[in-house]
Write a structure and sequence with these properties.
alpha+beta, 4-stranded mixed β-sheet, two-stranded antiparallel ribbon, 10 helices, Rv0495c, globular
Length: about 200
């Protein structure tokens, strides 16, 4: 772990490799698990505002879940999250064949809304937990992502590079550039040890 500003960052996001392999996992992270996508307070307001524009992209069962539960819910532990369909799929999930995709992102890709998706989804496999004085930035290992780990190793793409756009979105470019410096320093140290 190391500190960057008001964040405590796991070295795993620098040392582990990851590239989503949608053809292998079929978007399992959007349909597996026991809770919806984590949201922050600002995102709940965004979901309320964009829902009418996103609704045409959603499945009938997703629309039914949202209209019954709301565009967001408070989970059992008090965290804010997206609602689920029958405690499984995220209510915003749509399918292309057997592959789960995000209805919000589809609306974004077509220029209907200017918000891509919840930042927690965009960041995955990085998870951020906010505390009073700092945020913890960790790599979340999930067996449904084994193919993404293999592809990341094959392509030699560290987690932090794979989720660069999302990290910049969450923490800003200055923070990301500091992260790159730390990553380069750690790589240089490893190279020296090999000699």
């Amino acid at each position: 772990m190391f500190q960057l500003g008001k964040t405590i960052v796991s070295e795993d996001i620098i040392e582990k490799e990851f590239v989503c392999n949608l053809s292998a996992c079929k978007g399992g992270c959007c349909v597996d698990g026991d809770a919806g996508a984590p949201l922050n307070k600002e995102e709940t307001k965004i979901l309320e505002e964009i829902y009418p524009k996103v609704k045409p992209f959603l499945r009938p069962e997703g629309i039914a879940a949202i209209e019954a539960q709301g565009t967001w819910i408070e989970g059992i532990d008090g965290d804010l999250e997206t609602p689920l369909i029958d405690n499984k799929d995220c209510a915003y999930v749509i399918f292309d064949g057997k592959t789960a995709l995000c209805g919000i992102e589809q609306a974004y890709n077509q220029g209907i809304v200017d918000w891509k998706k919840p930042v927690s989804c965009h960041l995955y496999p990085v998870r951020v937990k906010d505390f009073t004085e700092f945020a913890a930035v960790n790599y979340d290992r999930w067996d449904i992502c084994d193919d993404a780990c293999s592809l990341g190793q094959e392509l030699q793409v560290p987690v932090y590079k794979f989720v660069k756009e999302a990290l910049v979105r969450r923490f800003g470019m200055d923070w990301y550039q500091e992260l790159e410096k730390v990553a380069n320093e750690l790589q240089n140290e490893k190279n020296l040890k090999k000699k």
